[in-house]
Amino acid sequence: MTARSAGFGARLAEAVLARGPLCAGIDPHPGLLDAWGLPRDAGGLEKFALTAVDVLAERVAVVKPQSAFFEAFGAPGIAVLTRVQEHARAAGALVLLDVKRGDIGSTMGAYAGAYVADGAPLTADAITVSPYLGAGSLAQTVELARAAGRGVIVLARTSNPESAAVQNALLPNGKTVAQSIVDEVARWNEGVAPLGDVGVVVGATVPAGELDLGGLNGPVLAPGFGAQGATVADLRRVFGPGLPGVLPASSRDILRHGPDPVALREAVVRVQESLAGQGFADGGIGPISGPVLAT
Ligand SMILES: O=C(O)c1cc(=O)[nH]c(=O)n1[C@@H]1O[C@H](COP(=O)(O)O)[C@@H](O)[C@H]1O
């Protein structure tokens, strides 16, 4: 076993132990800006995102800004995103930047240089990436991220209803595409302690029994919890009783309680309590000891 005290997996394990497993998304949808009484401009975006990060980042282990909603405002939006990332990290949360990058290997290296390599200007602790140009196209990104103590979360079985057609397609070796992605990620995490730096996305909305995550040794980001309909009971149904590596992710279902910071704070605490009440990540996060998805 390689001890990597400064690795993303280790830092994530520590954060989950201290704060619970919830990953709070910051998705400044235009409709949410309206609901918060804010203008649909860079000023409204800034007020929304900084209010959200100030409330969320001191409570949750992971904050996940969705880059698209910031990019939509051009350079001023990116400037706001940078401040959100700085505020979140200063408040002790890990930043998982949701950018879902996917390209040929050499271009992926440039994305790593933007977000997770040493000296990356848009510093995140981890980014979401798409493996659908082939898992090998991500190898350089994984290497650069890990060398900087950062991580990568790879889409495997996503929460959207369209995902099954591609991700459950069978390969000639009899595995689904999603399972083969999980197995590739497991190889990157082999021997890393206490937890690998490369995670997968498995939506909380997917049917139980599709995937074997037993050898993953890494985090499982589970979006679809909240606004897309999945409940705490669904998380249990999909991921089984152990759940040590699962990070339930929710954005709109928490953010809709703003702009009042007190109401927003109460909403996030309620979600954290509902997860704790179900024994989520009881005793922290760690390698999963058996198949996680119930059959
Ligand atoms: O990578 C993601 O975060 C992600 C993967 C996935 O399978 N499904 C999914 O919804 N997401 C993201 O998670 C967030 C979900 O938002 P809510 O539905 O508002 O909780 C959005 O930012 C999505 O882009």
TrEMBL record:
EC number, UniProt record: 4.1.1.23
Transmembrane segments: none
Pfam families: OMPdecase (PF00215)
Pathway: Pyrimidine metabolism; UMP biosynthesis via de novo pathway; UMP from orotate: step 2/2
InterPro entries membership: Aldolase_TIM, OMPdecase_AS, OMPdecase_type-2, OMPdeCOase_dom, RibuloseP-bd_barrel
UniProt keywords, alphabetically: Decarboxylase, Lyase, Pyrimidine biosynthesis
Catalytic residues, chain numbering: K100
Top-level enzyme category: lyase
UniProt domain Orotidine 5'-phosphate decarboxylase: residue ranges: 21-267
PROSITE patterns (alphabetical): OMPDECASE
Catalytic activity: orotidine 5'-phosphate + H(+) = UMP + CO2
Domain of life: Bacteria
NCBIfam families: pyrF_sub2
Family in the record: Belongs to the OMP decarboxylase family. Type 2 subfamily.
Protein name stated in the entry: Orotidine 5'-phosphate decarboxylase
Species this protein is from: Amycolatopsis minnesotensis
